[in-house]
Amino acid sequence: MEPETRVSRTGQLVNEEESMPVSSVPPRVLFQRPLKENPRLSRPEEPRPAEKSVLRDLRMSTHAKIQRSERLFQSMLLIGGTFVLALFATVLGVCLVEAWPSIHRFGFSFLWTSTWNPHRQIFGAWTYIVGTFWVTGIALGFAIPIAILSSLFLSDYSPKWLVGGVSTLMEMLAGIPSIVFGAFGIIFVVPLLRDHIEPFLANTLGTRWEFFNGDNMGYGILAAGLVVGIMVIPLVATVTRDSLIMVPRETVEAAYALGSTKAETVFFVKLPAVVPGIIGSVILGFGRAIGETMAVLLLIGNQASIPSSIQDVGYTISSLLANTFTYAVIDPLYSAAEIELGLILLLISLVVNTLGRELLMKLMGGRLAGSVGGG
Amino acid sequence: MDPASDTLVPKIVVKNFSAFYGSVQALHNVDFAICERKITAMIGPSGCGKSTFLRSLNRMNDFVPGFRVEGSVTLDGQELYAPSVNPVLIRQRVGMVFQKPNPFQMSIFENVAYGLRIQGVKSRSVLSDIVEKSLRAAALWDEVKDRLNGGAFSLSGGQQQRLCIARALAVEPEVILLDEPASALDPISTARIEELMQDLKDRYTIAIVTHNMQQAARVSDRTAFFLDGTLVEVNETTKIFTNPEDSRTEDYITGRFG
Lengths: 375, 258
Known about the structure:
Chain A is mostly helical. Chain A has helices at 2-9, 11-18, 32-37, 47-106, 109-112, 126-157, 160-175, 178-203, 221-246, 249-257, 262-273, 275-291, 294-299, 317-328, 332-364, 369-372; strands spanning 116-117, 122-123. Chain A has 16 helices and 2 strands. By secondary structure, chain B is an alpha/beta fold. Chain B has a domain at 10-105 and 173-253: Rossmann fold. Helices cover 35% and strands 26% of the residues of chain B. In chain B, helix 3 packs across helix 4 (124-137), helix 3 runs parallel beside helix 6 and helix 4 (124-137) packs across helix 6 (157-170).
């Protein structure tokens, strides 16, 4: 009795009992018994059971297929993933090997030595590390507030017809090559700083703090920082705007229902809700700013001195590499020192990325952190 | 039933009120009063306009593009839709709790303190007092008193909804609008919210939109039945659920449609 009912119900039980390979069972067999028992369905050649069996046939034959395609897909992914890992390891390995003479010779003192003299074979990174941080700091300090304000404007205050246009322009801005920004800096930002902003700074804040004083040249860390900042704005602004748009309508309604004005809703509810997104985009922007080469090279003045004023010239790691690496390759220690500079750049990026992720994790309480972390 | 419950003092009076989303009319000439220290339930099938009506009472529909109203809504005699009225001030007096728990991405404490902070309360001790009072009133204090600085999203859905109620209570509104406040919650959390409403009734005027007719019957003093943007019938809840005057109300509460 028991086997009979099983047979009449499902195909899989039949297979188990007869211990036949799954794919070799002709599906029509499954329907023979009920068809015979039921006079209305007594013709096995009827199209109805055949129709039904199409899907069942598929189901029965797919287990092996699924496994095969899964394995194929997994191995493709494995190749891709391994390639990326191998690439990273190769870059890091080659750099370490090439930088080894410098690492071995100078040790950690490489970091805080500010002499860089190829003739005397003394190399220290401090000047360039400081220059890099100045440019990055000025860039982010300029870009973040403007980017946040502009994204708030776009998400909550601008008329609808403006949003699409400005957003597109913003994305185009992110795609302009840095050399174009560098040229723009030379023909517009430098004269602007030289003729207006720097004299103004010197005459106002500069009378009290030497930090804002200088010789009003235009070129220097301020010009480089501002132009890099212009390049960072679209990065931060697009991500922030996207996160602002994603703030749930319910959250915004809750703020209004508590008697918030629009400004209060935007600043005290929406903005805190997108802080993780902003942090993620700032990490991206930091990566962009710290590595920016061409625009900085054109604007910073390329002088190996530690800036003491915002008007001073300076040198960054990336602009030094771009300017001198072709000369350095003939000298093993010189080139090793330059590659070590590159490694320092990589290390700073890694540290900032990791700290940013940690901060995100802490802010989000472990939720969602993977989806908003910067790359 | 205590004698006081028979005296009805109108708090919000709605006269000949129509609402439109663009060219679509969502409410047709509603005449209605929400009475002080009573729970008024609004029932009706989806799309009948009950939520639109509720959200019109604290001008939450202002954010919907193309929304406009005709007729009059007065709160203690003050016209809500007069041009000189700032909706922000209305919403400070008429609070709202929504269908989905919607705490802010802040600590439990800061969620409740938010409304006070934006109204300029700075003293930490005043804030702490009111936060505790509100959380107690929302029957949440005992569950969260040891983790006030924890994130609001660490709470369960029912707790989050009670947090939202506490947040609404903290700014001391006169009227609380509840838009299907328990529809996203499990039965136990729902029961807690319903108990809570009974506690709050002594001090607040409450209007609740609900899909759940048993809930309306359980918690409310008066019930209004909406259908296709019109107010079909409003009366004592016991009357509506035992002996409705309109046959459509009877059809709806007996489950013949909707």
